[in-house]
Design brief:
single chain; 192 residues; alpha/beta; four-stranded parallel sheet; 5 helices; globular
Length: 192
């Protein structure tokens, strides 16, 4: 039985947005990276918390989730962000590059339509800072039809916290308990 996906955003989750006064959490270290399509003389400055690497590696090593990048960083998450945190290479959702001026052109996170198709009927814990009420309604609808869906939404100025990953692992544990207690397809466990 396939473990649920753990979809990971980068901006606002691993790379916090500066506070109103321009500060970044003191836990984060500065890095200059060169994303695909940029020249080495025009790097992007990012801030990463080195503690995130071991926390994520621990979650990955449990084997209870299938981690996947779900970010506008796309392949650069695997080649630039992951190595700075000591993460193994992870697959990524190949998101399009839409011409939008807001993260919510239809009232919900722009990634969602693509992620919904990509996921199919696989359960997911999705960590992103940019969900709206419509995204939470989508997650509730998926869960109601037997496809367990958890949205975890860090504060974009703080980023990922230990309790966010604890929430994911608690959810995975409850999902595993449900599968073990009632493996019949009618229980929704088949879709999980």
């Amino acid at each position: 039985m396939r473990p649920p996906y753990l979809l990971l955003d980068v901006d606002g989750v691993l790379i916090p947005f500066p506070a109103a006064d321009g500060t970044i959490p003191a836990t984060h270290d500065r890095h200059d990276v060169v994303p695909a399509g940029r020249s080495a003389d025009n790097p992007v400055t990012i801030w990463l918390n080195p503690a995130h690497g071991p926390l994520l590696v621990h979650v990955i090593r449990t084997g209870l989730v299938t981690p996947v990048w779900c970010t506008s960083w796309r392949q650069d998450a695997t080649t630039l962000i992951g190595p700075l945190l000591g993460l193994p290479p992870l697959p990524y959702v190949d998101l399009p590059r839409p011409q939008i001026t807001t993260s919510h052109p239809n009232g919900y996170l722009w990634k969602r339509d693509h992620v919904d198709v990509w996921l199919g009927d696989i359960p997911v814990a999705w960590v992103d800072d940019d969900f709206t009420a419509l995204d939470h309604a989508w997650a509730a609808e998926r869960t109601a039809r037997g496809v367990a869906t958890l949205l975890v939404q860090p504060d974009p100025h703080v980023g990922l916290l230990t309790e966010h990953l604890a929430e994911v692992m608690g959810w995975v544990g409850r999902l595993s308990d449900l599968r073990a207690s009632d493996p019949s397809p009618a229980s929704g466990a088949e879709a999980a």
